Fold this protein.
Amino acid sequence: MSSRKLWATVAAAKGARPQTIESRTTIDPAVSVHGHVDEYGHPAHLHLRNTSLALVSRAPLANIESYRKRMGWTFPWYSSADNDFNVDFGRTTSKGEMFGLSVFLRDGNDIYRTYFTEHRGVEELGSVWSFLDRTPYGRQEGWEDSPSGWPQTAPYTWWRRHDVY
């Protein structure tokens, strides 16, 4: 599978929304970068704002699924083991695999990478608010300057318990 085909798979996955936050991580126990996934908020809040969250790792899918089950994570998680996805985004180099976080916007068949951070920049992320603030359409609240026709609500009026949506 090509790198572009993997991204198209992630962007078009069941339930994928126009905005996708993609966290590139590893399941290597010698590397502690996967710990940030434990801090991610419930995805239902992101979904209500047309935003998906997905993880990508170079490990084979069977290893990913086993690890995801062990950790109790429900986020969609894709393998880039058989393509250049990580290389294309500079996350796999001669020094090894590195983590990072990207935000993508899908507009019809076009996909744009609108945000990227790595290393310490990932540490401050994980709450619904910090994720939405890095997407092109933000929190989609009335105080923001959003594109015409994009849904907006008064601040905090859309927020519910995740089992109520």
Observations:
- The helical segments are 3-12, 43-47, 61-71, 85-88, 120-123, 128-132.
- The chain has a mean pLDDT of 81.
- The longest helix spans residues 61-71.
- The beta strands are 19-24, 51-57, 77-79, 92-93, 96-97, 100-107, 110-117.
